[in-house]
Amino acid sequence: xxxxxxxxxxxxxxxxxxxxxxxxxxxxxxxxxxxxxxxxxxxxxxxxxxxxxxxxxxxxxxxxxxxxxxxxxxxxxxxxxxxxxxxxxxxxxxxxxxxxxxxxxxxxxxxxxxxxxxxxxxxxx
Amino acid sequence: xxxxxxxxxxxxxxxxxxxxxxxxxxxxxxxxxxxxxxxxxxxxxxxxxxxxxxxxxxxxxxxxxxxxxxxxxxxxxxxxxxxxxxxxxxxxxxxxxxxxxxxxxxxxxxxxxxxxxxxxxxxxxxxxxxxxxxxxxxxxxxxxxxxxxxxxxxxxxxxxxxxxxxxxxxxxxxxxxxxxxxx
Lengths: 125, 183
Prior knowledge:
The complex is a heterodimer of chains A (about 120) and B (about 180).
Chain A: H1 2-5, H2 10-30, E1 36-43, E2 46-52, E3 57-62, E4 67-73, E5 76-81, H3 88-91, E6 101-104, E7 109-115
Antiparallel strand pairs in A: 1-2, 1-7, 3-4, 4-5, 6-7
Chain B: E1 8-9, E2 17-18, H1 23-43, H2 57-68, H3 70-87, H4 94-113, H5 123-146, H6 156-180
Antiparallel strand pairs in B: 1-2
Helix pairs in contact in B: 1-2, 1-3, 2-3, 2-6, 3-4, 4-5, 5-6
């Protein structure tokens, strides 16, 4: 081990440290996928409301089973309550990423986040 | 160099072309062969993530750069990219252009890095800088050509970490090899 470390010259340590700093800096900068700007609420496929994700708000949407409650907070949104039997859309919790979606199928309501640069749901190569 | 030394087209009546092979040509050929072997050996290693690989052939580039200068290092690297891609059947496939983009950018960075004072900056510095440049070149090409979406940049932390790790390891191996075989 020591024979290997002796191969490093003083400047090498600097370069390695700079490399570590670069990697560390790139993690928070790039390990996330944009920000969502709008929470789009639909009922039966038709847009009920487009809520900007900068301010907190609650919205009641009436469906065939009852009322679905959508809650928006700065940067995130969720289905706070839903009359559906299995509660999938409620259990999904807070949505933060653009294009993520919570669908309360029994009550015909969906909540989707939209970013500024939508266009792709997924990319494959 | 090889082409440039197609020197003497006999100006007399015999129209012969004489290829003069210099010691540098032989050296480039030998080093390039070693680099190609490493490329092929590496192609056999299963890799967890596409695009992340050790880049062992760059050890050869580092040694040539240190001992014989940037010009020969560039020859060895480009010959390795060309012949290596032919050997593994990737010539003109996306993988080939990715290697080429990485190689070109890292050679550019090495041209600058090799001017750093050698007392302080050894092969490990060269290696780490070149590895980052390699990844940057590849990502730029991917963004411009293969995946035209900023989503590819989410992979930057992974590729940067791999560049750092393999850059250090390859640099150490190059330094060790040169220490043990003084020329």
